[in-house]
Amino acid sequence: MRSILLLSVITFAFFLTSSSQEQTNSPALSGPAINVQIPDVIIIPVVVHVVYNTPGQNISNDQVKSQIKVLNEDFRRKNKDAAYIPAAFKNFAADARIEFRLATIDPSGLPTDGIVRKSTAVSAFGMDDKIKSSLQGGDDPWNRDDYLNLWVGNLSGGTMGYASVPGCAPEKDGVVIKFTAFGNTPNLQAPFNRGRTAVHEIGHWLGLRHIWGDADCGDDKIDDTPPQAGPTRGCPSGVIATCSSGAAGNMYMNFMDFTNDDCTNMFTLGQAARMRELFNAGGARAALLRSVKAEGAVGENSPAAQLAGRIKIYPNPAVDKLNIQLNGSNSGYIVIYNNLGQIAKTFSITKNLMDLDISSLKNGMYFISIAGKGSYKFIKGE
């Protein structure tokens, strides 16, 4: 949990109830035994629930997309400020080989942009998970076996964000971020305005503890993070040594510290390995490896990716006719949805080259589902 306030160990314990079990093969961290080979790069479909009380809290699509971009840069060690990792820690800095994609298919199988917007009468949410419940003014989660749920709204008490730990109840699973700390667009408030709050909280969602182990010189159960006395505040420089951190000092630039966004820039090899362990068979996040709710999910061998490699849709934009070249099975249906998710047209697949009459459609953006798989976008124009 990340806050602008100095929180006590007691407060941390409340939200990290399972922390003492996180690194000990506790049954609470186990999921169903799903035997899917872990790909080199894990793709996690994401749904962002924007819960707003004022127009300013109804953040833009660009702000949402900027956060996804930050996640992919930081978890892949493609962030530009990785160049400033101190020499003593450079060899420990990791590419976690985890990426995030906004969902393209919703739980009903309809096309989506991965963003859900919900107006609420609640002016500010606490850390009681009400933002995760439609009955309490928030928005219900999508199935955690298919999506990472991110909630964005106004949070009270100086809280920037908080996360569930692996093994929690399904309806509580996910990450909550204050709307002023989500993404890195110019309208955000420093010092948490570069999207690192979500990076930090998703670290918790993937089983990481705070780097100081939530205790004075505590243990985060990661071998390559040096011990330190507590959270770091602000944007320090040089060597700061506490506990037995050694000549290199504290790793205050680690994403799991409380340092300002401008001054965090790395996960370690040990942290990356711990996060990826959750995707092993029986792990708390293993089910996500089977999700095909976003482009690129499950890598190149997923059914959606295989289907995409066999299909050509042209012209795009289209006026009266749309051609779909199928190089595989010619059975099932082609369903065209409008941008509200409503069915606009349905065609039976009868041959490999389908010539569709779309002249009756209004101009705009549409989505195509082919034989119940994939999601393809086209524009109907004049």
Describe the protein's architecture and organization:
- By secondary structure, this protein is an alpha/beta fold.
- It has two domains: 2-290, Collagenase (Catalytic Domain) (3-Layer(aba) Sandwich), CATH 3.40.390; 309-380, Immunoglobulin-like, CATH 2.60.40.10.
- Helices cover 12% and strands 21% of the residues.
- The chain has five helices and 14 strands.
- Strands 1, 2, 3, 4, 5, 6 and 7 form a seven-stranded mixed β-sheet that branches. A four-stranded antiparallel β-sheet has the order 11-10-13-14.
- A hairpin with a 2-residue loop joins strand 13 and strand 14 (373-380).
- It is elongated and about 70 Å long.
- Residues 5-28 and 298-308 have low confidence and may be disordered.
The CATH architecture of the largest domain can be named as 3-Layer(aba) Sandwich
Compute the number of strand runs: 14
CATH superfamily of the largest domain: Collagenase (Catalytic Domain)
Radius of gyration: 22 Å
Poorly predicted ranges: 5-28, 298-308
- Class of the largest domain in CATH? Alpha Beta
- CA distance, first residue to last residue: 51 Å
Shape: elongated
Secondary-structure topology with pairs:
Elements: E1 2-3, H1 9-15, E2 42-52, H2 61-75, E3 98-102, E4 115-119, E5 148-153, E6 159-163, E7 175-178, H3 196-205, H4 269-277, H5 303-308, E8 311-314, E9 321-326, E10 333-338, E11 343-348, E12 353-357, E13 364-370, E14 373-380
Parallel strand pairs: 2-3, 2-4, 2-5, 5-7
Antiparallel strand pairs: 1-6, 6-7, 8-9, 9-12, 10-11, 10-13, 13-14
